């Protein structure tokens, strides 16, 4: 009887200890979950607040980023708030450390130019370079599209296929092709090609879009035309390169005169001038 009572008491103590331990762990888990949820909620509030600043211009900023080859949506979300924050920090720094009125005005102008204008100028420069690069890579994409059409693919299928396969070749051109393919599924290929010419406004892209539009409207065979179009674009690039090489001689004449001809003249005349100055 005593042994049974002893085992019952020990079992009760063990059960009580296990219960206390499990309650403690459950309390810690609830506290941790509450703190994590609080932290996530606070981050979500800050994220939504910062993302909501300048919400009316989000589409314009997104177009600028995409045209410049920047496809990170997080950068898009914080672009305007970051500019405002940097401008505020620059303003506070100027008010604290610049005391002369003229220097303060110059500093304010420099801050406005550096924080507001320079990033947009950088995006515009990237857009111009990206457009030129896409135009240079366009003949290779047209050749691949001609091969796809010859194998029996439709234009929509060729765009969809190239939008996936061109990632390793050129991610920027791949993005334009994939965006055109997605737009074609929503509003038709002709409207998608018009949007492509607006995003990449070059004569090569317009010729490419016009060729595909004629194929859609009149049902002409597009594969040979695409091959000829790619060949014409390559010949045009070769002519442009030859023109640049031809202009290079004229551009090098000024450095040639300044850095080579003048030193040679000085080396020739220096001994005689030195003898004249020394009286020999």
Describe the structure.
The protein is mainly alpha-helical. The protein folds into two domains: 1-28 and 54-129, no CATH class; 132-236. The protein contains nine helices and no strands. The chain has helices at 2-52, 58-67, 73-97, 101-150, 155-165, 171-187, 189-199, 203-218, 223-278. Helix 3 runs antiparallel to helix 4 (101-150). The radius of gyration is 35 Å and the shape is flat. The model is unreliable at 1-8 and 38-56 (pLDDT under 50).
Name the features.
2 domains, disordered N terminus, single chain, transmembrane helix, 280 residues, Biotin synthase, T2SS_GspF_dom
Tally of structural domains: 2
Structural class: mainly alpha
Helicity, in percent? over 70%
The number of distinct helices, counting runs of at least 4 residues, comes to: 9
Which value, in Å, is the CA radius of gyration? 35 Å
- Range of strand content: under 5%
Report the mean per-residue pLDDT as an integer.
77
Largest sheet: none
Q: Low-confidence parts, pLDDT < 50 over ≥5 residues?
A: 1-8, 38-56
Number of strands: 0
One letter per element, helices H and strands E, the order comes to: HHHHHHHHH
N/C terminus separation: 136 Å
Taken from the alpha-carbon principal axes, the silhouette is flat
């Amino acid at each position: 009887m005593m042994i049974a009572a002893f085992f019952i008491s020990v079992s009760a103590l063990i059960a009580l200890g296990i219960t206390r331990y499990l309650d403690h762990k459950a309390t810690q888990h609830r506290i941790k979950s509450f703190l994590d949820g609080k932290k996530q909620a606070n981050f979500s509030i800050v994220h939504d607040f910062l993302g909501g600043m300048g919400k009316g211009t989000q589409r314009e900023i997104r177009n600028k980023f995409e045209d410049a080859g920047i496809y990170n949506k997080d950068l898009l979300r914080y672009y305007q708030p970051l500019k405002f924050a940097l401008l505020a920090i620059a303003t506070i720094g100027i008010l604290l450390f610049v005391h002369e009125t003229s220097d303060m005005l110059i500093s304010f102008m420099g801050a406005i130019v550096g924080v507001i204008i320079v990033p947009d100028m950088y995006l515009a420069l990237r857009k111009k370079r990206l457009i030129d690069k896409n135009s240079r890579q366009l003949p290779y994409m047209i050749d691949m599209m001609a091969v796809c059409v010859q194998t029996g693919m439709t234009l929509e299928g060729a765009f969809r296929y190239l939008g996936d396969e061109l990632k390793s070749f050129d991610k920027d051109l791949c993005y334009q092709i994939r965006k055109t393919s997605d737009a074609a599924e929503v509003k038709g290929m002709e409207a998608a090609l018009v949007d492509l010419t607006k995003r990449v406004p070059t004569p090569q892209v317009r010729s490419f879009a016009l060729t595909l539009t004629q194929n859609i409207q009149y049902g002409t065979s597009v594969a040979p035309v695409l091959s000829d179009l790619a060949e014409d674009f390559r010949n045009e690039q070769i002519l442009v390169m030859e023109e640049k090489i031809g202009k290079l001689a004229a551009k090098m004449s000024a450095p040639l005169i300044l850095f080579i001809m003048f030193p040679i003249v000085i080396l020739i005349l220096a001994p005689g001038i030195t003898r004249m100055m020394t009286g020999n």
